[in-house]
Amino acid sequence: MGLEPEAATPPPGGDEGKVRPIRPGGGDRRRLRTGIIVAAILFFLFFLLPSVIYVYTEWLWFVEVGYSSVFLKILRTRVAVGLAAGLFFFAVAYGNMLIARRMAPRYQFGPGAEVIERMPIPDRVVRWLIPALVLLPSLIALAAGAAGWETFLKFTNRTDFGVADPIFGYDVGFYVFTLPFLRMLHSLVWWTLIFTLLATAAMHFFDYAINISGGKLTLAPHVKGHLSVLLGLILFMLGISYWLKGYLLLYSARGVVFGASYTDLHAQLPVYRFLAASAVVAAVLALVNIHFRGWKLPLVAVSIIILTAIFAGQVYPFLVQQYRVSPNELATEGPFIQHNIDFTRRGFDLEPIETRPFAADDTLTGQDIQNNINTVGNVRLWDPRTLSETYRQIQTIRPYYTFLDVDVDRYTFDGRLRQVMLSVREMSIEGLDPRARTWQNEHMVYTHGYGAVIGPVAQVTNEGLPELVAKNIPPQTDFAELEIEQPAIYFGEFADDYVVVRTEIEEFDFPQGEENVYTTYEGDAGINISSYLRRLAFSSRFGSIKLLLSDAVTAESRIIIHRQIKERTENIAHFLTLDNDPYPVVADGRIFWIQDAYTTSGDFPYSQPARDGINYIRNSVKIVVDAYNGDVTLYVVDEEDPLIQTYGKMFPDLLIPGDDMPESLRAHLRYPEDLFRLQADIFATYHMTDARVFYNKEDQWKIPRLQDGAATSTMDPYFVIMNLPGDEREEFMMILPFTPGDRENIIAWLVAKSDPGSYGERIIFKFPKEKLVFGPSQIQARFNQDAAISQQITLWSQAGSQVIFGNLLVIPVEESMLYVQPLYLRAARSQIPEFRRVLVSYAGQIVMETDLATALERIFDVELTGIEERPAVEAEPPPALPGVPEAPVEIPTGAPELAAAALERYERAVDAQRRGDWAAYGSEIQALENILRQMQAGTP
Predict the structure, then answer these.
(1) Could you give the CA distance from residue 706 to residue 719 in angstroms, rounded to a whole number?
(2) What distance, in Å, lies between the first and last C-alpha atoms of the chain?
(3) d(CA 3, CA 104)
(4) Model confidence pLDDT, tens digit, residues 377-391
């Protein structure tokens, strides 16, 4: 029954309310045991079994892709850390509750009588009840500990950053790796002690060791000692909490900028240090108080902590901020603003950006354009959004294919470096006839996409459609560099369901005329499902008994899962942040996917957080996925990143040096658009490196906003092939202009290079502050206000066509800026956007032409050679303009004369169109119409 007390007090009311526990009989015990077993089985089937099946099938997948060591490392760490946390919680809570039970006073009503308690439960039941009560919170602690596996591994494999914080002098690695682990450890101990204190007090209460009578609280002598020890430990952990909060001030948002401010350092930090010391003193007093009557000593200490936290912790910093900092904000906050500038630039890797001047003059000549012919010849005339619609209309071939998006890249073919737009043809089961959407068709027959479509960014056909250099099914191309020997796409952006290959049923490969070509998968991907256990496991995981019962499954059959690129790569390395746009690459006769991956953290001190709380980011990894085999390779391209060094220690078999990447793939690495956009957004403010200028926001920039239909949107970065001022060769790079914070003219433009040898180099070109250069929104407005352009658009719209404006591009050439915007037309009865015009502006001039070469020739009065010419788009001649008189027509006397007159009128109309003289254009077209009607009637 437990230890006998020194003195026992009978419960109030004497013998009244004595309850003797009912002892269950043998039949009751059997029913209870059966009920427990049934409940345990149901719990396993409904809660544990699905998790067991998932873990088992994931293990099979990790073995298939060759990263079983990663799976085992994560699993072992989860189990170890989770068990350690759960067992610690259970041991502390259970141990203290058991001590409380054993120390409980006992009162007997005569020899052999049962113990009378608030809850009269026999000790043999209590021995099971206590661990049962502790089990659920212990499991919660276990789950929380298992979730912290990455924090634990990063701590045990931490790497120094080589940069010390400016306040405490610790290496940044302390804040990124050590501090999160200490906070996780503190949280576990804190909540364990809080639960233990409450549970132990409850145990003492139910055992009458704590009694409330007449409004007075009385405790048995041993209870005070027990609870004092627990309270002392809690107060000690409170002191550690306040000590850790001092380091967290480096993430404070109180001041002008993110990070510790003057008030944080000179007011809040001393308060935290005092509170930490007070809590430790209170912990000691709680232990000393065991030998004194009452609770005065710990109550005084706790009161000091509470009062200090309320008044000194809130009021004192407020007074310092209001009466010391605010009147002298720049002087007092200046050093802390500088810390924020320096560490934000480090966190977002802005320090290496080179600054160059840009004259922004208007001195371009025709010869300059000719000298930069490869730059202007690679200006993108097709927008990805518009082109994806066009590809779907002209290259899907069958309704069950789709093009998810279009990506920009560069390839060398026909002896030239060309910027192209590429998209792969993926399988879309939704496009099948509903009657054909059977389980067998979806998972065994229509298993993969096929081929890719590639078109130069600046080439257009007579019909206003993209000129394609790789197209159709099977893939057709005239260039060896673009040949695709294995066009099947089992892994892509759209592949979001499992497929079963090497079955008795042949897979659909591609359509050929009225027939279909079938195939059997010969790659290495997939998990063998010849065993009944594996088929059962995957049937359960995907909720389909058809996989288990299908007669088409053979001993060679394989199931392919995680086929979507981001899902596949994230499943292997979910501690990396993935770029939103993996892009396909044609190399060595195959199709690959390149997925940019980032190491990120929100714990970089003093660095201004961006979206999702990130204040440190590096593009340290390029992930390559084979579209046919599904092979996943993670190449490290930034070995100086401390985070990727830590991940390399955590998973030594996961990462491969970037130097091992094949040259055919390295030639297609791109600076990531997501990263560039994020860095540009931060750089718009943090290009100001002087604290005074930063405080006054004297040189705040912004990314331009453009009109997009009825709304406005931020201008997207875009790729170009160009020769930068001061460089010796043309390169593939991404650019984005900036405008001042309160105006719309261009003030600078940022570039990021992508080619091998210069990958990752970033340069900011700054314009002279005294020079006004029109920004994108101003040029867009001038295009819209141009009489000739608006008149042409009005005529098209009146005819029922939809006019679509493409992306406005700002193209640097030498020390000047060209503005180019394509214009598309979607006819009333057509879903295909067709290229119709290009708008070009330079030095105040605006022209609209059917192709870029002609537009540049008009502006610079030059005949260009070497640019990719295209036949003129068959323009839709507008009707005669209101108010324009009909041109006098001399009536020829015969058919040859009529034809000659028609040709003359046509040439004069084209010339007027190129000059933008729409009045003359309408007159000539009217004259041409009169001649054509005469020719049709056959009368002179």
Answers:
(1) 18
(2) 128
(3) 7
(4) 999 999 998 999 999
